[in-house]
Design brief:
By secondary structure, the protein is an alpha+beta fold. The protein has 10 helices and 6 strands. It has one domain. The longest helix is centred in the first third of the chain and has 22 residues.
Length: about 180
């Protein structure tokens, strides 16, 4: 009975959170991205980064930033757009566990709030919202769904964040089995 009660509460909480997030995602989504590469720091719009991710078209500021940082635009685009398949309910359960906190802390080394406050909560919301739409997550979706006016992206760690998402895709069911209910 206790197990059923916990599962129902978790399911209701997830459903409510997703309903709120999906109905008002434009009010909660990031509008600007602060791209950081070593000593370089550039603020661009999420729309500008999204256009690059979708079309490959670089704005002049993004072109300059990536050139100064000696980054391959096509590789960055790949990290932003390749998606991983995840079950949003499983993802939510894992991310709300001690193991999930470790995962969130790792990914938030690459994508985080400018103040570094509430990184776990913001990243958890962005990941679950991204997965809820189509059962897939890409880094550009996480950035687009980040529930803050601005999001910082450490470009030097972008590949690491991408690889962590890949690991999440492969290991989510295994991690869930280890989490006590």
């Amino acid at each position: 009975m206790r197990l059923l009660s916990k599962l129902l509460r978790s399911g209701l909480a997830l459903t409510a959170a997703l309903a709120i997030a999906l109905s008002s995602s434009s009010a909660l989504a990031a509008e600007k991205v602060v791209l950081k590469y070593r000593i370089f720091r550039q603020s661009i719009s999420v729309e500008e980064l999204s256009t690059f991710a979708q079309t490959g078209e670089l704005s002049s500021s993004l072109r300059v930033n990536l050139a100064l940082a000696r980054q391959d635009p096509q590789l960055i685009r790949r990290y932003l757009t390749e998606s991983v398949a995840v079950d949003p309910v499983l993802l939510d359960r894992v991310l709300n566990s001690p193991v999930g906190n470790i995962i969130l802390d790792e990914i938030s080394q690459s994508i985080h709030t400018p103040s570094r406050r509430a990184d776990r909560q913001a990243l958890r919301a962005a990941l679950v919202l991204s997965a809820a739409r189509d059962r897939n997550i890409s880094l550009i979706e996480v950035i687009q769904n980040y529930p803050a006016a601005a999001v910082e992206v450490d470009g030097d760690r972008l590949e690491r964040a991408y690889r962590q998402l890949r690991q999440l895709e492969k290991g989510l069911p295994d991690v869930l089995r280890r989490i006590p209910i």
